Amino acid sequence: MRLLTIGAFARAARLTTKALRVYDESGLLPPAAVDPHSGYRYYAPEQLDRARLIAALRRAGMPLAEIRTVCGLPPHAAAEALDAWWRRVSADTAARARTVALLVDQLTERGTTMSEHTTFRYAARCETGTVRDSNEDIAYASATLLAVADGVRGPGGSAASAAAVDALRPLAAADAAGDLLAALGDAVSRADRAVRAQATDVDRPASTLTAIVRRGTRLALVHVGDTRAYLLRGGELSRLTQDHTYVQTLVDQGRLTPAEAGAHPQRALLARALGAGAEVEADLALRTALPGDRYLLCSDGLAAVVDPGVLHAALAGSDDPETAVGHLVDLAYAAGAPDNVACVVADLVTT
What we know:
This protein has 351 residues and is an alpha+beta fold. Helix content is 41%, strand content 22%. The chain has 13 helices and 13 strands. Helix 6 (157-166) runs antiparallel to helix 8 (180-196). The radius of gyration is 27 Å and the shape is elongated. The relative contact order is 0.13.
């Protein structure tokens, strides 16, 4: 059998001799022969495929321990193991990205001087969809608190969404001093308990919740479920929340594209909600608002049926929040309004 020196094998595999030594020491790719006197390593040409696979997996970021497992499997099983590993990495990356975004907002907020000479100019609407005989949505707006909630799971849904928003109302009149994000976190825990208190032996309702609490130009955002928050700033529309749904989890894992998620039959299945699971798991973030910002909070009865581009045009083309919410509700009805529609539009203005 013709053997290759470590240098020739490294060139053929597009590896370094240092990497080959590491793979040898870890048991991943031992040489075919070792000179007993010099200790020099020799490799067989048949080892090139394994070496190239190891190198490719390392470039993808897979740890050596998992590479050892993958390389010991038949090709089909190895492909499945690789796919499963990548889904885990993608989900973890998405979670870390949200954590980093929160930290960026918090650090930015700490370096920003808060102005008390601002307020929200706002409007809110909550309408029953064309095929619904009840409305579990709620939309609330004041100069310091914006909130949208969507009750789910049976007849207690409307009471659940109302309880969720009522738990936040004390924040609307609270003093500006103190840790705003901590206060909002406590309020969300109260909201979760309030929703759970609506449960009966035959009905265990839940509710989504997306809300913004304002102190000057400092905003605290809470989100759980598939209600949404958007920001229109400088003509650009950005989404401030990530849906907590089963389908969004599949998108985060790379198993669905956003386009496929929009048509998935289980797209409304919630992964998180107030009153569901062992305890509430809400997203919390601090943001700094700018005069001229326009915020939209809405239920999926609007976001799921109106194209983002159309949503953008409606917000950007409306002179005031009242006109904007009227236009948005009209768009939902023009799309069939298969679900109830709740929306709040608020402009940050100087006083």
